[in-house]
């Protein structure tokens, strides 16, 4: 299986400082992750702003009954512009997630760019087609709605 790319955009009618303050703290990831993933941060990172080299350990349940440990590294941070997290250990053969923030008229345009690859060759390719790709879409659809709820935004 080749590396897949997915892109999501979300406009937030907020100032960049407010948006960055929320997203630059890994502890806030729990607030925008589906409850059925049983997301748990194992690292002691409360009240820490991210920095390049930061290691964050999680426990997640991406599918019912399947619990996994996941370790990511924040590899790049450009204040109020973008940050990148990469999986070091976990369920993917490759995971590279860019989070971009751009001031635009009336607010901030957030862009997530995800590159990922499922392991296990042809079995992984089938699992991606049957389960993984759809689950990733569900997670980011949930995230969009959760972000709106966190910031009290009503989208018409």
Notable traits:
156 residues; alpha+beta; 7-stranded antiparallel β-sheet; globular
Instruction: Name the helix and strand elements from N-terminus to C-terminus, one letter apiece.
Output: EHEEEEEEH
Choose one word for the global shape: globular
Rg measurement, Å: 16 Å
Low-confidence regions:
none
Largest sheet entry: 7 strands, antiparallel
Strand content of the residues, in percent? 35-45%
Number of helices: 2
Give the overall average pLDDT: 95
- The total beta strand count reads 7
Cα(first) to Cα(last) distance is 39 Å
Helix content: 10-25%
- The side-by-side strand order for the widest beta sheet comes to 1-7-6-5-4-3-2
Return the structural class. Answer: alpha+beta
Secondary-structure map:
Elements: E1 4-12, H1 16-23, E2 40-41, E3 54-63, E4 66-78, E5 82-89, E6 94-104, E7 107-117, H2 121-150
Antiparallel strand pairs: 1-7, 2-3, 3-4, 4-5, 5-6, 6-7
Would you give an account of this structure?
With 156 residues, this protein is α+β, with helices and mostly antiparallel strands. The chain is 24% helix and 41% strand. The chain has helices at 16-23, 121-150, and strands at 4-12, 40-41, 54-63, 66-78, 82-89, 94-104, 107-117. The longest helix has 30 residues, at 121-150. The protein is globular. The mean pLDDT is 95.
Give a brief outline of the structure.
By secondary structure, the chain is an alpha+beta fold. The chain contains 2 helices and 7 strands. A 7-stranded antiparallel beta sheet has the order 1-7-6-5-4-3-2, covered by helices on one side.
């Amino acid at each position: 299986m080749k590396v897949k790319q997915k892109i999501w955009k979300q406009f937030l009618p907020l100032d960049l400082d407010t948006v960055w303050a929320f997203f630059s703290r890994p502890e806030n990831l729990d607030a925008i992750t589906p409850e059925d993933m049983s997301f748990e941060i194992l690292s002691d990172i409360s009240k820490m702003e991210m920095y390049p080299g930061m290691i964050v350990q999680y426990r997640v349940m991406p599918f019912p009954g399947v619990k996994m440990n996941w370790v990511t590294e924040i590899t790049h941070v450009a204040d109020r512009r973008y940050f990148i997290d990469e999986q070091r250990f976990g369920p993917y053969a490759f995971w590279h997630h860019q989070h971009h923030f751009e001031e635009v008229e009336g607010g901030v345009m957030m862009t997530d760019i995800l590159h990922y690859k499922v392991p296990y060759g042809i079995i992984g390719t089938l699992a991606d087609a049957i389960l993984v790709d759809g689950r990733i879409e569900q997670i980011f659809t949930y995230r969009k709605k959760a972000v709106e709820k966190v910031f009290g935004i009503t989208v018409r």
